[in-house]
Structure formats: C-alpha cells, structure tokens
C-alpha cells in the first residue's frame, strides 16, 4: 500500500465559476435515494422523511481540518467516507440503523470543485455501502480550511432504542471488533508525514501497516452487530460507540448507569497488526486500546443469559462485567487492580 | 439604541479548564425539553424523537464567522438567536412547525466559556420563544473563528408539507412581512464599524435605525403564518423562505414549478424605515427588496379563491401571479416590464 499524493489535474475549477446552487446540483446529482422513508430529498427547504410510527434517532458531528484530520495524508475521498460512517456509528450505538444523512461543508477558496467531488465520492460510497440517503445539506465558504458537519437520522431496531444508562449489576461488558488500530494507523501516517517533510522524494512502502491505516482512514460502522442483535433477539441493556477510547466510554456507561465495572486486561481485543505496531512504536497495547479512540466499535452490556450467543459471534469479546459498587476497575495481567478513571483521557 | 461593546469580564475561562463534556453539560443544563415528541435529549449517542406517524422535516444550515457574520458588531447572544430562527424558517417554508434542533459549534481558542454562554443564551431564548427543544450537538475546537451548524426537525401542518414545485398558473404570489430591512440594517452596522475603526471613542446613536438593525440581528421565523394557514384551512401550492432575496427565491419557485410569473413593483412590501434608510444610503428600495436577503419572510403561492383570506391578513402582501409562460417578469412602476433573471444575484 502506498499513500497516493494528490494528482495535479490539468484544470481545476473555482467554485465561484458555478455558484452555490450549481455546486450543490453537481455534488448531489448522482445520489439516488433508496429508502422508502425518504419522501423528499435534496432541493427544497427541508427534506421529508416518513418514519411511520417509529421513533426518529438523530445525531450530529462536526469535523474540522487541523483538529480532526490532516489533509496532508488523509485523502478527501476517505474523509467523506469516514464522516458518514462515524455518524452512522452513533445511530448504531442507540441500537438503530441509519437511513438518512445531511452533510454541510464549509471550504476555503484553496479547495476547488474537483476536491469537493472527491469528498462527495467518498460520501457516496459510504451511503451506498450502508444504504443511507443523503437528503440535505449546506455548502458555504470558510476563511480557513475544511469543516464538515454531518447529521444522521435513523430508527431503532424492533426491540427499541438502547441508552447509555441501562447497565445492571452482573451484566456482561462486551466490545465488538478490535481496539487501538485507528490510533496506531494515525501514528504511522504522522511518522510518514515527518519523513516526507524532510525528504519529499521518499516513497514509503506502507504495505505492512495496511490494516491499521485502513482502521484510521476508512473506519466502518457496526450495522452488522445491530443486525446480529435483531436476529438473535438480544437487546443490550446499555450501549455506546467507542470514539474516544475504551476507558472514556466505559466511564460514560458506568456513570450513566450509576454502576461500576471490572474489566480484564487480558480480554481486551487487540489485533496482531496493532500488537506489532505497538512494539515498533514502543507503545503499551492496553494503553492504546483504552485511550486510542476513533475505532468506532460498539461497547455494550447484556444480561448473563446472552453469554452463549455472544461467545458464538467471533466479532464480539466479553471483557468484563458490571458491578454494584461505583468503582471502575481494570484487572491487569499482572494481577493488580487499577482504577480506570485514574488512567486519564482528554478530548478537548 | 446603542451598540454595546463586549464587556471585559474580570476572569474569563479557557474551555480546556472544564473539557468538552463539562462544556456541553454547562451549556445545555438549562435547556428543558417541552415537546412530547422529545423522548431523549442531549447526553446519549443520539436523541430520540417520536413523531407518531407524522412525516419528519429536516433542514440544516452552517454559519461561518467572517462569511455570514462579523462579531465586531454581531453580539453572540443575537447570533445564537438568529442561528435558530433562520433554521426554523426553513421548516416553516415546508408548511411545518419546528420542534427540535441540534447545534454544533467549532470555536478557536480566542473564545472563552463566557462567550459560548452568551451564544447559548441566545439559542435558549429562541428555543423558548418558538417552543423548540435542543436535543443534541457537538462542540469542538477550530483553527480560526466560530462555525455554527444547526439542524432543525419538525412536522408538517395537518394539511401536509408544501414544496417549491407546486405553483399553478394564475396562483397568487404572496409574501409575508416587509423586505429589505435586514440588508439595510447590515449597511448601518457596517458603516458604524468603519467609523469605529477610525475613531474608537465615537459612540453612535442608532435609535433611528432600531427596526432595521433588529431585522438583521434578530430575525424571526414566521410560525405565525403557518398557524394562520392552519386556522384558515389554506394550503399554499408552493413555498420558500426568503434568505437570499426576493428575486432569487421567485426564480426558485418558478423554475421548480416549471412556470413563470408577473410581479408588480408597487406591490412589494417595504417598510417606512427601510425607505428612509434607502434614501440616506442612496439605494434603490426595489433593488434591495429583490436582492437584499436574510429577511426570512415566506414567499408562497395560493389559489385565487384564497384572495379574501390573504388580503384580510395584514402580515401578507399579494405581489403578483403565476403565469403559464416560463418568463419571470417585474412590472416596474414606470410601466416597463423587465426580466427578473436579468437582475442578477450571487450568493457564493
């Protein structure tokens, strides 16, 4: 895998040449709504959605250049994809399936229409992969950089929506997929950026890091887990998506539920690729899983009676259980108990 | 009326001191949901709304400092108010009433918590005035300036939603309120900014411009007109809100409906204050009404049979009618016909 440098097109087009309405038309004309619930899409003052008696789930996120992404190694197409999947992930975390998004972008005049088309091509692939309709948005200029705001709409599964606050004592704590990969992918990309700045002719071979780079640049939302719940008739008692790192999200679940937890370090799922990268970067794998962020995996609690079904799903790992005390404890491999809150994390 | 300069507080608080979650808690704790449809508000991965069989209307807008507003004369409280009312206006334009909003803000580190509290106090007043619940959002840092993204949700009136595309030949073209005031208010504020830059000790008396400044700084959404439609059992055939100026919106309605129109210059409603300001600034009132923007009035078409009811509402002015040709014509006071499209407007 090689990082592709942006290609120099022969002629780039200033947005002023086609105007705001021309731009919206250009960017959205290839988006075709596929959900029956989408009654009216882009092109009027508001979109119209028919959720037919079901509750509406709504979540919104803002991504800012230089804060959430660095375009020197984040291709715009991937950024569009990630903006959508990270928003879909919030709907998953409510035990829901996302069906519509709106996307607003503010862009400085250094961006040409071709760049926006790249961004929207990634948005389109994500919408297609997740059967989501783009139903509205706003396009404006900014004084500096690129800002993307995505609002996701969806409906809960038949069993109903799941909050952060329903965890019960002795519930199993479960996580989907593996953790830490997205953070480690970012470390590789940051390192290559520094190399590039020193020696722009260097062409890095990143094949060995393909999986973790993909976790960073092209994360997926776990619709499959929501569908598994539905098929297995499992309703989690509480759920959250892991955007800031496992420890931050565990704290949210426990505090919202007014409970504590015991997490077993040796149960935290970390991929082989991530372990290798940790060794190379001299990082502690558990710390990365706990604080890395951007994995967009689901963290949830279920009743003990669901243990067999959970264990039969290879995408899920039971990492601990809920306790009646308010203490949130990590049992280290060494046998030592430590308080999760003392690990510290900060996202602002 | 005097423009208040920002007060220097004794101690301003860096956002890093309380962190993102502390900030969200601080900004949203005084918002109390009042709509039965709001099942779950701020504090989880998504909000949950029960629209109970009704369609969901959704619209989104992004406001960027230096592009959409200038904080040297735009108080943050007013900005918060305007961000909400301009979004509610989009829901009105669908013949709907807004019931929920999400608000995302990106802010550079020049903003302290006190500034954000001002912004949210204006958001809160607007939510209270319009019976709208703040149900979610995102707070993040930016490299430069303030960016606000608002998504508005609502439901259509009993008669159903109204698109831009339903205008029929001979339908009356109607506008609410008066036009041009917001643009003229902006001219006054821009002029005073220039005076202030030359002579900071100058204290302008802006009493004479109070009404037009208010149109700029504190625009209202026309929920009252939607309620009037409902009470009068009127359903417009097409509708749009006037954010970019009358000519731009007339063109949208006609093109979406595949029709033309005839507008009478002498019927375009312009307030006495706006006429005075036009004289002072040596501007042509009709041009300002056609191209000024930000008035957030409603432009709609109705069947001729509704004429009496429309004329009995002092907030509404019949300004012309829809024609079967595709020509969009303004009949000037002089008796000359001119093509509206040739007037030109540009919003990017």
Topology:
2 copies of one chain form a homodimer.
Chain A: H1 19-28, E1 38-40, E2 47-50, E3 55-64, H2 76-92, E4 96-107, H3 113-129, E5 133-141, E6 146-156, E7 172-176, H4 181-198, H5 210-217, H6 223-232, E8 238-242, H7 246-257, E9 260-264, H8 272-281, H9 285-291, E10 297-302, H10 307-311, E11 316-323, E12 328-331, E13 337-339
Parallel strand pairs in A: 4-5, 9-12
Antiparallel strand pairs in A: 1-2, 3-6, 4-6, 7-10, 7-11, 8-10, 9-11, 12-13
Helix pairs in contact in A: 1-3, 2-3, 4-5
Q: How does this model look, in words?
A:
The structure is a homodimer. With about 350 residues, the first copy, chain A, is α+β, with helices and mostly antiparallel strands. Chain A has 2 domains: about 15-155, 2-Layer Sandwich (60s Ribosomal Protein L30, Chain: A); about 170-345, Phosphoribosyl-aminoimidazole Synthetase, Chain A, domain 2 (Alpha-Beta Complex), CATH 3.90.650.10. The first copy, chain A, has 10 helices and 13 strands. In chain A, the strands form 3 sheets. In chain A, strands 8-10-7-11-9-12-13 form a 7-stranded mixed β-sheet, with helices on both faces. Chain A has a 4-stranded mixed β-sheet with strand order 3-6-4-5. Chain A has a two-stranded antiparallel sheet with strand order 1-2. In chain A, strand 4 (about 95-105), helix 3 and strand 5 form a beta-alpha-beta unit. In chain A, helix 1 runs parallel beside helix 3 and helix 4 crosses helix 5 (about 210-215). The model of chain A is unreliable at about 1-10 (pLDDT under 50).
